Amino acid sequence: LYLRYIQNEKAEAVNHVAASLAHEVRNPLTTVLGFLQLIKSGTFPQEKTERFLEISMEEIRRTEQILSEYLSISKPHLPFQQRIELTAQIKSVVELMISYANMSNVALSSDSPQSDLYISGSPAELKQLLVNFIKNAIEACKDVDNGMVSITVYEETDQVAVEIKDNGIGMTPEQLSRLGSIYYSTKMSGTGLGLTFSYQAIRAMNGSVSVRSSPRSGTVFLITLPRANLNP
Ligand code: ADP
Ligand code: MG
């Protein structure tokens, strides 16, 4: 009886993920299909047609992102640890996110100490979690004037801290308490998987996260990670 209970619970979790994934993916598919039909009708000027194609491509990119978020959440965290130089990783993620920030009218900046800072973990997971935090920060600033996101790295004796600060919409205490719960999202087309994955990945690296936020003034996430030994 006990075994069956567990199996049912697992089956339910799988159903939940499948249903939610189907829902997330169906919306962009419907949009793209609609635009393809419009384009096929041939009744629109070149300029309009190009816009339809652009929106369709954006929707396909979004679907891809949704799928990769779902995959990352269902994968166990890699036990494989590697020495990673943090400041270089952050630079490359910031570069990656610049176009998204520009598109959203948000200034993105970063500041790191000169010296090399080593941590240990999976480079792919570190990159994904930094993308998740920065993406959320940019999205929080979308509708504010002078939206700004800044990433600062602090060097401590045994740890490094990465601060991701935005002056966006912020969160209420109630929203803060739900942060990191699977599927928790306040966005029209959010998955609510980004932070769930990121918190898991940080835990897998023996790190921790803290957050300060208030409505309309912005949010500060502080990720703390242990430094790797100097001698690998
Ligand atoms: P998603 O981005 O798909 O909604 P996440 O797990 O990345 O899912 O984030 C969950 C929720 O946490 C968001 O929908 C938002 O309400 C809140 N959130 C996360 N980061 C911020 C931030 N920097 N500012 C305001 N709200 C945030
Ligand atoms: Mg997100």
From TrEMBL:
Its main location: membrane. Keywords: ATP-binding, Cell membrane, Kinase, Membrane, Nucleotide-binding, Phosphoprotein, Transferase, Transmembrane, Transmembrane helix, Two-component regulatory system. GO terms for biological process: cell wall organization. Residues 20-229 form the Histidine kinase domain. One of its GO terms (cellular component) is plasma membrane. It comes from the Bacteria. GO terms for molecular function: ATP binding; phosphorelay sensor kinase activity. Its EC number is 2.7.13.3. It is a multi-pass membrane protein. It is found in: Cell membrane. It catalyses: ATP + protein L-histidine = ADP + protein N-phospho-L-histidine. The keyword rRNA-binding does not apply. This is histidine kinase. It comes from Paenibacillus lautus (Bacillus lautus). The chain holds residues 188 to 419 of 419 of the full protein.
